[in-house]
Amino acid sequence: MEAQKEKERLRKELIEVLRTDKLQLQQQLAHTEELLKLQEEKIQQVKPGNEIEEDKNCSLPPMDGFPDCMGKLKWMKQMWKTDPCYSSYGVNGSLCSMLYYLGEIESWCPMLPNRVTPVPETEKMVSDHAVMRESLTDLYPSMDKKKQYRWIRQRIRSMERIWVEAGRSLSAKYNLTERKAKQILVHPGAITDESGVKIAESAFNGGPLGELVQWSDLISTLYILGHQVHLTASIPDLKHFFAIKSTSCPPRRTKVEANLIYTDIVGLKQIQQVLNKSWIKYRCMIRVVDTFGTEPDFNHLAWANKHKLTGPFGRLNMIPLQFYTMFPHTPDNTFLGFVVQSPLNSEQTTELKSYERKKQALVYGKRSTFWKGKRDYLDVIHKYLEIHGTADHSTDIPPYVKNHGIIKGTEVQALLRQSKVFVGLSFPYEGPAPLEALANGCAFLNPRLHPPKSSLNTEFFRGKPNIREVTSQHPYAEAIGEPYVYMVDMDNSTDVERALTAILNRTIEPYLPYEFSCEGMLQRLSVLIEKQDFCNNTGSWPPRSALQVVKAATNISCKQTCQEAGLICEPAFFPHLNNAENLANYSVNCQTSEQSDSNLVFPAYNNSSKHCVFQSDPLLFSCVRSHHSLTRICPCRDYIKDQIALCKSCV
């Protein structure tokens, strides 16, 4: 009986051993089959034509311990473009970039040999001080990831050496070592796909370039000045910057706290959409790149609604100085500007002199429709000069014009250096080209506009948030005057011939206002970044020592009053003048006074009754409005010649 029990026990033990061995063998076989399958996949994937290919920079690493890596690589190969956050981490479709991401950001794959865990740009130790950069090389990768920056990158790269030289020159003249390095977000809303504007796409096909020029030069300036520049080009990009989780990508390890934000009106609305109510936190940090400017009454939400100042722009309730313009249109806004591509630097001056001036004119108008109705005007010019054009096609262009079609900027520069006259056709308004002509030693025929054009009478300006009157095709050039700029009435052949005779009888030297040079823009932005502060109401900049108080005649604006005194209206000084005690220091004695927001001319007073009216709403301070009976108290300041944004004591 005992022997039978022992026999049964041994039989069960043997069965259990065999079962265990079989299970282990099955597991080993399964593991071997999985390894063989992964190896086969690896072999298949590196064959030409398959999804995952090794390249000269990367080989597929051993996959031991990373069973999901190959599947993730396949997915990433097909899907990396579906979410912009992948490209923000450097994924560009190459095997290396995908392995970097999957190995170092999400940990699905092994880290490649000789790699250390990268530190994201936002986590790198950033010096407290802004140091002038000697290269723009490290800026380009952030633009390479975004197709919307293609034209901007091209312009920046073409001007890199000039930017670096300008930075060195400015550093030699001023002490720039005490500046704070800022985290700066740059979001040009008009280039985003969501905007539907398509200026980035049309840039290579004869589309308008003014805004792209301005963005290019702003980015170059910020980077050369030593700040940390973060570029976005979509709403998902914005969400990623502000660490708003909305995609399959992991969020930033460390959120960047912006010190300054440069955007445009489209971009501001996108920022408001992304941040919702929390955008108010960033409101004072925002600078709105605004080509034509926004006047205070259009900017003020309640005022604009009450007075039916409707349109797609305006009603943003920003401080008017937060709007940054292309030209110094109105002192209520800040002049940002741009850089005129010019041969006026040490290396190219000799090259400029080597060009032989011919008896030829170049017409300003790359759309043939701009030429329509200008035949008589061009006929007069053709009597004196051979005429060249760079228009999209020959419709509406006289047969005697040598049309080069849409050409590169460098080719346009060459034509300008050969020409004596750059011919305005009255449109487009206020572009960069006339200043490029002057810098290349070419006089500009600037057509007068009868009557002056504004949003009240011209379709082009309709809806723009101002009623500024444009008296010629290019008001800034108009102020430069002869011998560089000649005002002409296109319908008056005698007037046109007078200008042409004057131009042909003299040599026009190249001329470029300092504020439109690389160094001038670096100087201007450096001061604005350091000193212009809308977050802290200190009223310390511009320095009070620059203030000069001038009383305006009735029906005259402070802009005009200051201008006639050789000064510029400075709205930052309005709060200082907005009380009876301070006005007394400038010989304005208020016997009675009141606060009101019923007009844009306050502070002002009635000369006969000595009754003063002060502005109760600071967003309604205005340099550009006047009154039929009240005398305006105008805050004026001096300015540096050819650098109107800065007072003489500002640098």
What's the tally of helices?
A: 23
Structural class, by secondary structure, is alpha/beta
Give the overall pLDDT as a whole number: 88
| Gap from first CA to last CA | 112 Å
Computed CA radius of gyration, to the nearest angstrom: 33 Å
DSSP strand tally:
19
| Largest sheet composition | 7 strands, mixed
Helical content, roughly? 25-40%
Shape: globular
Name the poorly predicted regions: 38-50, 117-126
Strand content: 5-15%
Count the domains: 5
Report on the architecture of this protein:
With 651 residues, this protein is of the alpha/beta class. The protein folds into 5 domains: 1-43; 46-118, no CATH class; 137-335, no CATH class; 349-510, Glycogen Phosphorylase B (Rossmann fold); 542-637, no CATH class. Strands 7, 8, 9, 10, 11, 12 and 13 form a 7-stranded mixed sheet that branches. Helix 2 crosses helix 4, helix 7 packs across helix 20 and helix 9 (210-224) crosses helix 20. The longest helix has 44 residues, at 2-45. The termini are far apart. The model is unreliable at 38-50 and 117-126 (pLDDT under 50).
